[in-house]
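Internal QA ticket QA-208
Title: Verify multi-chain structure generation after dependency bump
Assignee: T.L.

Test input:
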Amino acid sequence: MGLLRQKKQPAFKGSGLVIFADVQEALKAEKVLREGDYGVKLVAPPPALRKGCDLAIEMNLVEQFGIERLFREKDVAYIDIVPVDAASSVLLDVVKATDYGQWVMVKAANMKVVYDKATGVIVNTSGGGCPDIPYLHAQLVDKRLSEAPSPKEIGYTLCALMLHRALEECLLLWHRGEQS
Amino acid sequence: MMLLAGTFPDSDLPLTVAEVRVQDGSLVIDGRLLPCMQGTGAMMGAALAVTEYLKLDPPHAIVAGDIGQGKGSRAIYEYLIQNVKTLAPEVLVLHYWLPDMELTRRLCQAVDQCETRPVMVADAASMYSAKAAGMAPSFDIFTPDATEMAFLADPDATHPAYIARHLFDTDITQTPGLVETAYANRSAAKLLLVKGAIDYVVRNGEIVATIDDPDVPVLEAIGGTGDTITGLVSAFVYAGLEPHHAAIIAARANRMAGQFAAATPAHKIGHVIDQFPAVFGQYLCQWSGVCCTGTEGEHDD
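Actual output:
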């Protein structure tokens, strides 16, 4: 068993925050904005606006008008767009992988995905504590990495988002293993 | 009464409050069969393994279906807020649900109105919301893993997805420093059972025990092995053990069940839960003085 690698994603720094009622709407908005070629980053809302499982989008405030129009066109519901609060937090951007011989476990924050190196089949997911995690466990386990549903598409919470990041890294490692 | 609260990933499951039993490896709550899978199910399965072995009253469950949208979670919060005083549980275990700081604060206020305060246990997102809401000192037991310990030590994080990178980069051997920080920030329960390659039992900021034997590293890869520890420690407290003693035995029993199961990362949590009766039969009396004799369970802690 050993540590394989760590990964850091490129940083984006914006000047405004889009606030949403729930994580699922924030994830939908992120997808819409990325498809629209906007530079964005998922972050925590300011402390005063947090409930416990929240997500906001950091964006460039100068792009507010275009973003608002895109949200209207794509039917994205948001609460407000506000200047960045210095106290807003950034999502953890590190993943770790552990080699168990026949299996690899990839961890993103509190979430883990384990797959079989020979078959690419997900054999376990673990960690987390939000209510969609047991649901995602049932949806992902025993499926091939390439055929598993996206936690970002069918989940609702920050735990699901971290599980998605772990799954993305599993796919990278799996494809790299296939090519070597 | 031991009261276990949490969500199940079944959108059709209404808010249900009933005794929980186990039948052919599944949970039975108000006539419904629910799986002993990762999450609330694994926690309940482990707690039932203890209560059945010791012939204690079965736990009561408050459950609701929720796949992440929060409706079932809020139903559980609200039911507990309205009824915890009447239910008067001796042990109250909060597990998977959508973290909500305001509802957690209201629940803690409701618990304060109980004539006899229950032993309060939180794991999973219930622990996240307790810490984020600043209510951690109101809880008796948290059962974090190493990453969640870093979350408790990070004063700004309201969810483990937001912990500072330097804290995420620490390993289980850094737990003592994280524990010190978490207690200084009033972000820890009275007792912590930190799960990892080394399990740490911490009482009011002092590490009172470490457990690293047997060493079964694959347990981290199996979904639900942290949930079973929560169920075990809660049920051992309900059986009458002091929380730190219950935590030590829970950590040992979970590891031993993994060894009995010859666990691999591909095993499912039910396979580990199935081992608990054999583990208790072989070790519980030796570890705890909780010795079953015939049909009567007794303990002398």
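Spot checks passed. Chain A touches chain B through 52 residues (CB under 8 Å).
Status: verified.
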